[in-house]
Amino acid sequence: MTRKSFALSLAALSVAASVAFFGWPKAPAPAPETPSPRTAILEPDPLPEPAATLHSETVELRKRDTVIALLLRNDVPPDSAHEIVAALRSAGANLRQARPGDKLELSRDAHGRLATLQYAPSPWVRFEVSDRGGGWKVDRIDAARKVLIEAGQGRVQHSLWDAVESGSIAPKVLLDFVPIFESEFDFTADTREGDLLRFLVEAHYADGVRVDYGRILAAQYLSDGRMLTGVGFQDAKRFAHYDLEGRSLKKAFLRSPLQFARISSRFTYRRPHPILGGVRPHLAIDYAAPTGTPVWAIADGIVQFAGRKGGNGIQVLLRHRSGYKTYYNHLSRIARGVRGGARVSQKQVIGYVGSTGLSTGPHLDYRVSHNGKFVNPLSERFVPGKPIAKARRAQYREYARALIERLEKEAAFPL
Length: 415
Description:
ten-stranded antiparallel sheet, Nuclear Transport Factor 2, Chain: A, about 425 residues, single chain, globular, Glucose Permease (Domain IIA), 6 helices, about 35% strand, alpha+beta, 22 strands
């Protein structure tokens, strides 16, 4: 064997030994088959899970505040605050009427970000705002409305307000009750301890919760054996109160020019004058009331004079129909727009109680003249209002009878 052949045989044996010991090298794994774009299956990205709410807080509008200002003050980003306000307006929320004290409930997620907002501008509607991933969305929820007719009653101890303070009558109901009879009865001068009142009133409910009161449908006031009765009736033009025969309870003239005051001096031809001395006529009714108490016109009329008038102090003089004039003296100031030649309507505020001129303290000196002669306002028989039309009078009487029967049953006066 030649030297060259021996070398080749030795190399072959070396390779064979290596293969025997290590094995043949493995072939590379084939690359995974990539699906064609036409056959690829695309899974949609999962929607983000809503973050758990961490806490809720109620915030309140301040004086001269806006909803945007409130949101910014409570760490809502400006972009979100403007989007929320725009969404609320689109849903019908009138944010221009937002008032101090209105409340918003803010709910935040675990990261402190605003998640939902609730705004209830009234008991009748609320707006729920939430972030649903694509911006702020608003749901408007209207409360279920219901009107029930409810009976109520009260007794006078020292004043009409006793019934309010005892909780038996809501303030709004009493304020609506008094005008029904104010042309027939002077609640300032003639109210007595033990007087009784009762009524049927519309009660407004939102989602089963009483929110407020509406019209008084029937009312009675018993004083010193005299029973006053008023029934509310809707005709083609207005809702008004009438007696059982259909005569209007609203006269052309009210009995008093202010509410819940106290008579400190009555109409007389002989009264000791507290300042000038001697006995002089006092052809007026003095109503003691705090300075600033509103004084209203007892009837429609025209302002004949408004300004200072000697011992009368600041005075407003009104001219009315049928030869009547009314005088309001010792005012602290005159209401805006009340000046010579201006027209005023019944119960319009024309001034405020004061103590100007010859006066010993805050009160209203109120006078009435008829055809140039002063008359007693508490005993004068003023012009009656318009009755129910004859064509509807029979219908009204039947309606009134049914309401009063219900009132007597549901709010019986104590024997």
